[in-house]
Amino acid sequence: MNEGVNIVALAVFVFFFIAVTVMGFLAARWRRAANSDNLDEWGLGGRSFGTWITWFLLGGDLYTAYTFVAVPAAIYAAGAAGFFAVPYTILVYPLIFTFLPRLWSVSHKHGYVTTSDFVRGRFGSKGLSLAVALTGILATMPYIALQLVGIQAVLDVMGVGGGESTHWFVKDLPLLIAFGVLAAYTYSSGLRAPALIAFVKDTLIYIVIAVAIIYIPIKLGGFEAIFAKAGDAYSKTNPATGLPAGALVPGDTAQWGYATLALGSALALFMYPHSITATLSSRSREVIRRNTTILPLYSLMLGLLALLGFMAIAAGIKVKNGQLAIPQLFETMFPDWFAGVAFAAIGIGALVPAAIMSIAAANLFTRNIYKDFLKPDATPAQETKVSKIASLLVKVGALVFVLTMDKTVAINFQLLGGIWILQTFPALVGGLFTRWFHRWALIAGWAVGMIYGTVAAYGVASPTQKHFGGSSAVIPGIGEIGYIGLTAFVLNVLVVVVLTFAFRLAKAPDGLDETSPADYTADAGDPGVQQELPSPTGAH
Amino acid sequence: MPQPARSPDSLPVVTPARVIAGVCLILPFLAMLWVGSYSRIEPTLIGMPFFYWYQMVWVLVSTGLTMLAYTLIRRDRRARRGGEQ
User: Fold this and answer.
1) Which residues form the signal peptide (chain B) (predicted)?
2) Which of A218, A230, A229, A239 is nearest to A82 (CA)?
């Protein structure tokens, strides 16, 4: 690979990239309000988005570089273990069905826009709300980093990423340019930019998926041939570890890991700030439940895309960095011009979620940290300014992850984010169903989960790096290898339960709960339910 | 927000509809987390090992179960809301 620049593919890619960049900047004028200098305009597109645009934005959470690059790459490298993404997305929907309607109701009753808002209102604890906000911002960074890795993989395969021997700056220059463009139009257009580009992105992605999962298996002689070749490849020993490179089905020792990764990721997904924003903007709680019956069809696509990892092996793709497997497969299989379209789909499919995620994290910072702690009397113009700068800083944080962590196992970025964000689950979902947990116990549990998760992940070595080399480790007490995020989560819950008993016995002061039981089942049209949520920084 | 408390529901908290909906939502967890039940190659389908096509089939099964739960809960909710007035 990297024998030279693929001119045709690069030209098609650049064409689409310039087109969406122009759209990104023009988006600022799309449905523009008279006064655009407030956070409502920048961070929520003036809240003028209907069901369709919301649906596209939600699709942006699911179809990211995670789906297109990281999951197939994990399959390419290790086989069955990477397929956990399918049960993960299957389990997400029953979970959403159970808890998000309650969050929708209470948020629309009290004007909550972020998970931090809800936690503060429910438990009357600013500290807990701060912990949730900080975790959301931190966990979003590696998820954005994953998107940047996806863009980089595409650039590498087109021959503009530079080889290993190139000077680091030249090597990362195209990525930095893509990053700069993303940062610039998010800064100037806010949520309007990704919402408008999402249309282009989804169209491109559907075309590429449809072609890829029909055309490539036919060219490779059907699934039988693909799996036979992949099975042969996995049975060869990996010289680095002395073990077989992978397996077509998880062996007895890998099953805990498979199940815990699926469950942990499913519990984590809807804790992310960007997924919550997209859900809360839906019209009614009915819409959320109805969507959970349609959205799982995305998982089917994810499963088919994951199989691309096997196809890359069957097609004889040999890459050192697994992330390059799928782009390389496209380049080998498709005519140059269509490879360019596929690369554009991956590239734009990474840029849109990166923009949405950074905006959601920036809103969280402005609303729950800047307004609550630093400058309560900030003017709307100041808030917008702070949000814009925060969105830049979040992306710079993501860039730090990209430049310092091992990019060959990009799925780890998402799993690392999951370890952190999962620690906000007891406060959020627990709070939706019961007020029994004590606020101090929740903070302690959160701290234990965060520290355990980070230390355990720090201690995982991989053949390519000493720390943060993976997201699975031995589960204490069970002795099987499992997802660190889920272990930390269980510890977190244990601490919360034990300390809640202790605090209740000691009669520690309970925070003020501003919600009432009926708030959790209220629907659009009920008295007191706001059709539109207020501005993310407005009074409430 | 001040609001008069609702009159107690005319239906009991646990109804057959709610139980069935709960089971529908729990089944995917049992099926997917019991990895040992499906981690094998045979029988293959159009050349795809059981492990892969079984999980893909579960995408459709879980969609169906969630739809069923949705219908049951919606009906249950209507009955409850109707009972208040």
Assistant:
1) none
2) A230
Contact A276, B29 (CB under 8 A): no
**Domain range summary for chain B, segments of one domain joined by +:** 16-84
Give A484-521 as a DSSP string: HHHHHHHHHHHHHHHHHHHHHHTTPPPPP----GGGGT
Q: What is the ipTM of this complex?
A: 0.84
The residue among A62, A265, A293, A520 with the most chain B CBs within 10 A of its CB, best to mutate, is A293
The residue in chain B having the minimum alpha-carbon distance to the alpha carbon of residue A310 is: B48
Cα separation of B5 and B8, whole Å? 9
Q: What is the pLDDT of residue A2?
A: 45
Q: What is the pLDDT of residue A194?
A: 74
Domain residue extents for chain A: 7-21+50-520
In chain A, what percentage of residues exceed pLDDT 70? 83
Q: Please judge whether A303 and B60 are an interchain contact, meaning their C-beta atoms are less than 8 angstroms apart.
A: no
Q: Which residues of B touch A259 (CB under 8 A)?
A: 32-35
Lowest mean pLDDT among A19-33, A370-384, A387-401, B41-55: A19-33
What number of C-beta contacts closer than 8 Å exist between A and B? 117
Amino acid at A70: A
Q: How confident is the model at residue A38 (pLDDT cuts 50, 70, 90)?
A: low
Average pLDDT over every residue of A248-268? 87
Say which DSSP state B6 is in.
P
Nearest to A249 among B34, B40, B59 (CB): B40
d(CA B25, CA B64): 10
Tell if the CB–CB gap between B51 and A80 is shorter than 8 Å. Answer: yes
The domain made up of A7-21+50-520 is a member of CATH 1.20.1730.10: yes
